[in-house]
Specification:
Length: 378
């Protein structure tokens, strides 16, 4: 039997063969199906990019129109899902609400015909279409309002912002939001994608796949970091406090949120794009002092930690963009999930194409041959 070295966190161990996305962490390159992220952010839309990831090629004009049409007309959620969500505690985290709602959706589509392309397509469309509606619905319901119906005349991102804020968004804000979704849609074998593939490998339904991935994305070392970035910027409060704050983190060996990445050892290319988007928003809607704090943080962290390859990651500037759009901090990670669901579904499809159930091994380091002690003797 082959003996393998144990690697905590499976660092550097391939868990799948995939042609969905590619990262060069030394050069700061990210590609989806071979196309550079910078080009997609400039020229594509979220739904077109989702199509590219899931079906492997950019759609023709007609294919894109059909896909957009399908997603548009599946945006409404069932009243029974809405009623279930009304029973969720208002103080609960929206990621937990999303995880529960995504799993509950599977109750309505119990046919699990994984060999049927129509079932795959229906599931993809339904999940991409309804996840934003569920996020917006929970936001309104926890404030005591009724959810807003999706608007068929608005495109994907504009409709989400409309459902969230109960008013039509500014076109620049809607386009920037759409680019944010493109930047978050996929990123090779990260924790939530691995989780999705493990769940997919049992041949369960795609709703369970997405629900398990949502649960994994929520942690502060993964998608949850963008919430913590805003908290950190608020705690720092002024540019003058940046250096002492970072010094203190380094002395306590505490991680500085929004910095560092398992793969990138240079600035995350998504952070570079997001920083420019944040600047466009500030130019149109007014300056934000948190941006000055963020820039100073980037300077000081680079000075102190560049030798360890610690630079801003995708979560560092995304929070600033969403904050400027008036989005509540605890919705940042659900928004990440709105985007990433398309990446997870691309991995679900790829996993099914050459499936083998995940069953790694372990190195047992416990005891053996221990006699059972009766309870009164313990
Ligand atoms: N702040 C300060 N030091 C850091 C940071 C950070 N954010 N990240 C890594 N380091 C240091 C570590 O202390 C370690 O130093 P040492 O070698 O002297 O012990 C060295 O850099 C290597 O760090 P690891 O923890 O081994 O790096 P790893 O690849 O395991 O961690 C991670 C990556 C989890 C993202 C980490 O950088 C981190 O916790 N960052 C903050 C949380 C965050 O922003 N997460 C979002 C990631 S992007 C995403 O998931 C979408």
């Amino acid at each position: 039997m082959m003996v393998c070295e144990y690697k905590p966190g499976l660092e550097g161990i391939p868990a799948a063969q995939s042609s969905i996305s590619y990262v060069d962490g030394q050069k700061g390159i990210l590609e989806y199906r071979g196309i550079r992220i910078e080009e997609l952010a400039e020229k594509s839309t979220f739904l077109e990019t989702a199509y590219l990831l899931i079906w492997g090629e950019l759609p023709s004009k007609e294919e894109l129109e059909v896909f957009e049409h399908e997603v548009r007309y599946h945006r409404r959620i069932k009243y029974r899902i809405r009623d279930m969500m009304k029973c969720f505690p208002e103080s609960g985290h929206p990621m937990d609400a999303l995880q529960a709602s995504a799993a509950a959706l599977g109750l309505f589509y119990s046919l699990r015909d994984l060999h049927n392309p129509a079932y795959i397509r229906d599931s993809v469309v339904r999940l991409i279409a309804t996840i934003p509606t569920m996020v917006a619905a929970f936001q309104l319901m926890r404030k005591g309002n009724d959810p807003v119906r999706p608007r068929d005349d608005l495109d994907y991102s504009a409709n989400f912002l409309y459902m969230l804020n109960e008013q039509e968004p500014d076109p620049l804000a809607a386009r920037i939001f759409d680019i944010c979704l493109i930047l978050h849609v996929e990123h090779t074998m990260n924790a939530s994608t691995f989780s999705a593939r493990v769940t997919a490998s049992t041949l369960t339904d795609p709703y369970a796949v997405v629900a398990s991935a949502v649960g994994t994305l929520g942690g502060p070392l993964h998608g949850g970091a963008n919430e913590e970035v805003i908290q950190m910027l608020e705690d720092i409060g002024s540019v003058d406090n940046v250096r002492p704050y970072i010094q203190d983190c380094l002395e306590r060996k505490a991680k500085i949120m929004g910095f560092g990445h398992r793969v990138y050892k240079v600035k995350d290319p998504r952070a570079t794009i997001l920083q420019k988007l944040a600047e466009q928003l500030f130019e149109k809607f007014g300056h934000d002092k948190f941006y000055d704090i963020a820039q100073e943080m980037e300077r000081v962290v680079e000075e102190k930690l560049a030798s360890k390859g610690i630079y801003p990651n995708v979560d560092f500037y995304s929070g600033l963009v969403y904050r400027k759009m008036g989005i509540p901090t605890d919705l940042f990670t659900p928004i990440f999930a709105i985007a990433r669901v398309a990446g997870w579904l691309a991995h679900w499809k790829e996993q099914l194409a050459e499936n083998r159930i995940f069953r790694p091994t372990q190195i047992y380091n416990g005891r053996h041959e221990i006699p059972y002690t009766p309870i009164e003797q313990r």
